[in-house]
Write a structure and sequence with these properties.
With about 180 residues, this protein is mainly α. The chain has helices at about 1-10, 20-35, 40-50, 55-70, 75-80, 85-90, 95-110, 120-180. α2 runs antiparallel to α4, α2 (about 20-35) crosses α7 and α4 packs across α7 (about 95-110). The radius of gyration is 34 Å and the shape is rod-shaped.
């Protein structure tokens, strides 16, 4: 069990041109999972209750993986138990499932879609977030120090202003006395 979980999670290199059954299975799994978890697809499933076509996504992912391995349409149809017409439609993106799987394949291949590959990737992202947090804390400390300096400066100004007001009052009183 742990072995199969590791195989599914440790997909750091996607076999875009699979050479054997294991790589075909790996590519079809990546295509199916990555397609299902794309925000656009999740939204479609949620809004339109498309759970009924998850099977079509699986067939489209399987068909594309086999096509990339060099299988013919008739070999794919026979292996997947579907008609050649159905397989062709999936591979040409004429079905919604085929369209989504083809998009996912291109996004993965071009690097526009990234798969979280497991604990190491999560640790790497967590470390980056911790470093960002440390930088922000340091910046906050600098800002806090600056604010403290400004507050101290304002207090000094206020004290000087109070002193000046007292002196002004004193001079004003003296002026009044001199006038009398």
């Amino acid at each position: 069990m742990a072995e199969s979980v590791k195989e599914v999670i440790d997909l750091t290199e996607i076999p875009f041109q699979p050479m054997d059954r294991q790589e075909i299975h790996q590519l079809e799994t990546v295509l199916l999972v990555a397609t299902l978890f794309r925000p656009k697809v999740l939204e479609m499933i949620h809004e339109q209750k498309f759970l009924t076509w998850v099977d079509s996504l699986a067939v489209a992912a399987s068909a594309l993986a086999r096509q990339k391995a060099g299988y013919t349409v008739s070999e794919i149809a026979e292996e997947l138990g579907r008609t050649e017409a159905t397989i062709r439609k999936h591979l040409q993106g004429e079905t919604k499932a085929g369209e989504l799987v083809l998009e996912t394949y291109e996004m993965l291949k071009s690097g526009k879609l990234r798969i979280v590959t497991g604990v190491e990737d999560i640790k790497e992202r967590l470390k980056a977030e911790e470093e960002k947090l440390e930088r922000l804390e340091s910046e906050m400390e600098d800002v806090s120090t600056t604010i403290s300096r400004v507050v101290e400066g304002l207090k000094k100004c206020y004290t000087r202003m109070e002193d000046a007001l007292e002196e002004l009052e004193s001079l004003s009183e003296r002026l009044e006395e001199l006038k009398e």
